[in-house]
Write a structure and sequence with these properties.
With 165 residues, the protein is mainly α. The protein has helices spanning 3-22, 25-42, 52-73, 79-86, 98-108, 111-122, 127-134, 138-164. It folds into two domains: 1-90, Rna Polymerase Sigma Factor, Chain: A, CATH 1.10.1740; 93-165, Winged helix-like DNA-binding domain superfamily/Winged helix DNA-binding domain (Arc Repressor Mutant, subunit A, Orthogonal Bundle).
Length: 165
């Protein structure tokens, strides 16, 4: 498959997945670029062209895990963290921002639940594709999806109850 075609086809979905994992557009951009760099270097080794999407998502996920291990070994304070500490008070959020609240709750989930939820609902991948990307059994994917949805539901119910009160 031509490199430009692969980039055009999968860039936005890989970038969204990167954001959901890292919570940062800059990190997601780095992850996506690294994924395409690896594709440019090793993509010709993929024998089945129908597996390009799974290969790319798996590669991005592995790069994310690799970067998390690196950060764990070499922690540093990000610019966003310093800015948050300096901010006096965040402006009030209007009630029309419910979609943003859902994304915020999703970002607040443990990575174990956030990964499959993002791949299933935002990237529209099948259980099998998710299992291949995360390298876990399909039953574990289904379990994590169910538990993640349950946690999100409880957090959103609590939020809406507080807003209504």
């Amino acid at each position: 498959m031509e490199f430009e075609v692969v980039v055009e086809t999968y860039y936005s979905s890989l970038f969204r997945f990167g954001i959901s994992l890292s919570g940062s557009e800059a990190d997601a951009s780095d992850l996506t670029q690294q994924t395409f760099f690896i594709w440019a270097s090793k993509g010709d080794q993929l024998r089945d062209p129908s597996k390009v999407k799974t290969w790319l998502f798996t590669t991005l996920y592995r790069e994310f895990l690799r970067s998390r291990r690196r950060e764990k070994n070499h922690p540093s304070e990000s610019f966003e963290e310093m800015t948050i500490e300096l901010a006096d008070e965040a402006p009030p959020v209007p009630l029309e921002m419910d979609g943003e609240k859902v994304v915020e709750v999703l970002k607040g989930l443990d990575l174990v639940y956030r990964e499959p939820l993002t791949l299933f609902y935002l990237e529209d991948l099948s259980y099998k594709e998710i299992a291949d990307i995360l390298e876990i059994p399909i039953g574990t994917v289904m379990s994590r999806l169910a538990r993640g949805k349950g946690i999100m539901r409880k957090r959103l119910e609590k939020y809406f109850a507080e807003v209504r009160a």
